[in-house]
From TrEMBL:
Pfam family for this entry, one: Aa_trans
Organism per entry: Amphibalanus amphitrite
Record's protein name: Putative sodium-coupled neutral amino acid transporter 7
InterPro entries with a match to the protein in the record: AA_transpt_TM
Keywords, alphabetical: Membrane, Transmembrane, Transmembrane helix
Length: 462
């Protein structure tokens, strides 16, 4: 586990209350993370490839007013779930998301949560690599023309694996997540530049936007923005290990970090989504950067910025996914504490290496980020709403089984509401994603090599 889990407990454990399942002991950290550094870690975990999809999501949902209203509503539950996770991790003495769930929901919760985390983090890592692939294609297409992919050293088949090996691989073997706090600061700065670029281009770019929606085509379109919002604000898997690494591990300190981070995310996503959508309207692509001309040096710098951001975020998601896979491995083999500690280093390195290599290979053959984000948005709903809701419900019932206190009755009602919202969003988003994939026979292709090849064939046969 990444950090020490010792803190002042929020709830005193009674003598007859069962102890949580034993977990591997962790030596206390030499120095913890300050709350401003935690802000960078949380922001970097949340901000990422989802930002590029916000303008199109605003269009699909029916315009700015509708999309921003849905975002504001979901943010209430998103922020509340962060505090719930801090309380639950303290109660369970946990340093990872899946261990917090394990401490309250038992072995079934551990298996379900770990599997979902591994799948979500893996899919997100693939999405990040698709972004790197697409942006490198945009750069070389602008510099060398549409035939760039015929030159081996410009093809993403070469550039993506090499750059990932150079810039991502060295960051993937850390035992503690706060090792990435300095890289996170660089990644956050890169996103701020991208926000500034989208804003400036709206006022100075001279683009002719497509149709601007003011209402959804059908009422169900309102929900089309949900997967992007859930994917964009999902930092919940990362916040538990970040919380465990805080120098002063208290809910107050954590809440300060979390609220600051969410405020930064809200401002960043809203600016990018609003001005990106107003710039291109209905013509906006799933990756808004691909709508600009990469020959523009400012756009080129933006492409470099999102690449830097992606390189610094990938290791955070790999860390969380790696911990989930290792937890499943240890639990599945029934290893005790000493046996699990013996092979920890090689196990960590093997899982991280296999994770990285396989995600690179999958990213090379996946058409675009749009459909991936929709599917990941449904999984994100589990981490934001369902698991925190179930954990809060169990926590309240352990403390007050008869619900004698009014506060506990309100907390129970909120836990049920949180879980219900999550189940609704998960089912709806998953259904919408599958329906759209079936209707369009797969996501739109953003691989410029494929696009250029298809265009050439159409011109030859036209």
């Amino acid at each position: 586990m990444p950090c020490d889990v010792t803190s002042a407990p929020l709830l005193e454990r009674s003598d007859d209350e069962p102890e949580p399942p034993a977990r591997p002991a962790t030596p206390p950290p030499a120095a913890g993370t300050s709350w401003p550094a935690a802000v960078f870690l949380i922001v970097n975990a949340a901000l990422g490839a989802g930002l590029l999809n916000f303008p199109q999501a605003y269009d699909q949902a029916g315009g700015l007013a509708v999309a921003l209203s849905v975002q504001a509503t979901l943010l209430v539950f998103i922020v509340a779930a962060l505090l719930v996770l801090a309380v639950c991790s303290d109660h369970a003495g946990a340093a990872t998301y899946q261990d917090a769930v394990h401490g309250l929901l038992g072995a079934p919760g551990l298996w379900a949560c770990s599997a979902a985390i591994a799948l979500y983090c893996y899919g997100t890592c693939v999405t990040f690599l698709i972004v790197i692939r697409d942006q490198s294609d945009v750069v070389f297409s602008s510099l060398a023309g549409p035939q760039f992919c015929k030159t081996w050293y410009m093809s993403h088949l070469f550039t993506m694996p090499v750059t990932v090996a150079l810039f991502v691989l060295p960051l993937c073997f850390s035992k503690r997540i706060d090792f990435l706090k300095w890289a996170s600061a660089v990644g956050v700065a890169a996103i701020f530049y991208l926000d500034g670029l989208i804003t400036v281009k709206y006022f100075t770019g001279g683009f002719e936007p497509g149709p601007i929606k003011h209402r959804p085509d059908t009422w169900t379109d309102v929900f089309l923005v949900m997967p992007t919002i859930c994917f964009g604000y999902q930092c919940h898997v990362s916040v538990v290990p970040i919380y465990s690494c805080l120098r002063v591990r208290t809910p107050t300190t954590f809440l300060r970090s979390a609220l600051t981070a969410i405020a930064v995310c809200v401002a960043t996503y809203t600016v990018a989504g609003t001005f990106g959508y107003l710039t291109f309207g209905g013509r906006v692509t799933s990756d808004v950067l691909m709508s600009y001309n990469a020959r523009d040096p400012w756009v080129m710098a933006g492409i470099v910025a999102i690449a830097v951001k992606t390189y610094t975020t990938y290791p955070i998601l790999l860390f969380c996914g790696r911990e989930a896979v290792v937890r499943l491995w240890v639990a599945g083999r029934g290893l005790d504490e000493s046996a699990a500690a013996t092979g920890e280093l090689p196990r960590r390195c093997v899982v991280a290496t296999l994770w990285l290599v396989s995600s690179v290979l999958l990213a090379l053959v996946t058409p675009s980020i749009g459909a991936v984000i929709q599917l990941l948005g449904s999984l994100a709903a589990l981490f934001i709403f369902v698991f925190p809701g179930l954990c809060l419900l169990r926590l309240v019932l352990e403390k007050d089984p008869e619900l004698l206190l009014r506060k506990d009755r309100w907390l129970t009602a909120f836990a049920v509401a949180l879980t219900s919202v999550g189940a609704f969003v998960f089912g709806l988003v998953l259904t919408q994603a599958l329906e759209e994939d079936i209707e369009h026979l797969g996501p739109p292709i953003t691989d410029l090599c494929v696009v250029n090849r298809v265009t050439s064939q159409l011109m030859m046969h036209g």
